[in-house]
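Exercise 7 asks you to align residues with tokens for two separate proteins.
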Amino acid sequence: MDNPLYVIGGIAVILFLIAVPFIRRWSRRKGAEIGEAAGRRFAEGQVAKADASVPKMIAQIAVTMVLHAPEAQARAIMAEATRKGADFPERPDGTWGMRFLDPADGVAELVPGPQGTLVRVREFGEPMGYPTLGPVWLRLRGRIEKAAKAAQVQVSEGPVQQYVRHAPPTGDKGRWALAD
């Protein structure tokens, strides 16, 4: 009988059984470290993208439109444009909420002027820590243009607005409002 091979094999099995918990603990720790590092890199990249997209998002939101109609007719066009869905609820003060996550994420308003009625975003928030309302505003503008065309009202691009960020209270998101 080849006893030395059985003894060496037995010792190898015993050493393996003793080492398994240590190997498992080491591999979990190493995997967690690698995962955390990858998560940090990903989060830093996302923050950098968000920071880079803020000026573009503000530029989208800053574009206004003029409905070449009196305010009453412009309100009817807005009512038609916001009729479907719950993304643009009319508010008691005569403005319209713009929903990204919450109806108060943005506020659109009508302002009577010499060439017609100006449609603009009065204020908007940062529901995810940075402005996200650009695509929502573009969608609302598209709806308004479609409703105005159906009402045979001419639409043109209005002046570009300037916004100022208001520092958020502790634990809250920031808010942007028109710079007056």
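Second protein for Exercise 7:
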Amino acid sequence: MVLRLAYAGQAESARRQMAAGRRSRFDAAMAGTVGRAPYAHGSTPIKGERDYREATVSGAIVVYYVSAGVRTVTAVQLNNL
């Protein structure tokens, strides 16, 4: 299943601050991991909520919500390592 990726607030701001090459690699990694299998790839639930998750993707810690009903993953926090 392929899900649409969206970036909200702080996550979009942090993504835009990445250098172009890094952002391209990050976007490709997000599409190939979280965008295809949001409950896999070493992600862990936060606060006991299955759809509120954290994962390390391409050198960044990403906090995101999974909305399977609308086939969307929304990143709400992004911290570059």
